[in-house]
Amino acid sequence: MKTTAHRISVLVLAAAAVAFTGLAGCASTATQRSTGQYVDDTATTARVKAAIFNDATLKLTEINVETFKGVVQLSGFVNSAADIQRAVTVVQGVSGVRSVKNDMRIK
């Protein structure tokens, strides 16, 4: 009977250790996002792309969008400095955007 109880307690401890290390793997670091942050960033990227698409003066095909921990990076080649400024302004108004890094260039 003690052997069975011992085996069960070892299995429970092993399962707890696996669960704990699995949860620790989901934590964020300076260079990696947690699972929740990844999901949030994906949703933010989608909202940013929709905002750019819905703006009559901007072309979504010219602007690349990437999000990391709420910081949106815009890159690509656009027609004018006014397009760059408009894109930054539009993106700053999107929920979930903490800041905008502008890496767009004029064609």
Automatic annotation (TrEMBL):
Main location class: periplasm
Domain BON as annotated: residue spans: 40-107
Protein name: Osmotically-inducible protein Y
Pfam families assigned: BON
Signal peptide residues on this chain, from the entry's feature table: 1-24
Locations listed in the record: Periplasm
Listed transmembrane segments: none
UniProt-listed InterPro entries: BON_dom, Lipoprotein_DolP, Transpt-assoc_nodulatn_dom_bac
PROSITE patterns for the chain: BON, PROKAR_LIPOPROTEIN
Keywords annotated in UniProt: Lipoprotein, Periplasm, Repeat, Signal
GO cellular component: periplasmic space
